[in-house]
Amino acid sequence: MPAVRNRTLRLHGSIAQDIGTAILAGRYRPGDLLANEVQFSEHLQVSRTAYREAVRILSAKGFVSSRPKAGTRVNPRSSWNVLDPDVLRWIFENDPVDPNFVRELFELRQIVEPSAAALAAHRRTDTHLALLESALDDMESHGLAVEAGRVADRLFHETILEATGNGALGTLASGISAAVRWTTLLKAREGRMPRDPIPEHRAVHAAIVARDADMAFAAMTNLVGLAFQDITTIDPRIELA
Question: N or C: which end of the chain has fewer CB within 10 A?
Fold first, then answer.
């Protein structure tokens, strides 16, 4: 039974990804009414139940709204949860990535992460410090050009947001860390990183260990700024956006 359930969930997710990607690409525009479930399920050659579950996934991510007798309509872009890890995957797995969106992600990071690092410097616990140290060691051992290093990088950024002790900021942890992963993948798409980012991560860690909020803010500002510069060397369109 668990194997059947997992296959079913994968099917729902695959259908949601197909429709979500079409929405992101502009093939379905805000305000468009999707075909009814009978037409769509026949077109996709899936059951009506599978299609309905996919629509529920898209609705939870803010992409569509469904109403009885009114059908399923694409929501305005402002309603889309673009920080949802699945949505970020859909965006970055379908080239070319919109350079404006990449720039917006870095603007978000520059607004959120330095202040989070400063707050974490005041509120971190020994557990947080141990997680950060372990993540840094793994990043250093593996490098960010491979998945194990990127997983450690995600943990580093997630832990800082969680170390703020602020529940509202904590809800951003999965989205911010997913953004870190995908932009790092973009930088490493040729199999190597444009430079070693570990020293900047070590500087953030040292400031948080020292409980120096001003230093933590400055170190994280520098880390995100240099990461953005790395992206512009890989894709000049982003710099021109």
Answer: N
DSSP 178-193: HHHHHHHHHHTTTSS-
Report how far residue 219's alpha carbon sits from residue 205's, in angstroms, rounded to the nearest whole number.
9
Cα dihedral: 146, 152, 154, 156 (round 10): -150
Statement: residue 41 has pLDDT above 90: no
pLDDT (tens digit, 9 = 90+) per residue, 198-239? 999 999 999 999 999 999 999 999 999 999 999 888 877 877
Q: Which residues fall within 8 angstroms of residue 49, CB to CB, at 6 or more apart?
A: none
- Which positions ≥6 away from 240 have C-beta within 8 Å? 99
Question: Phi/psi at 195 (nearest 5 deg)?
Answer: -160, 170
Contact 57, 13 (CB under 8 A): yes
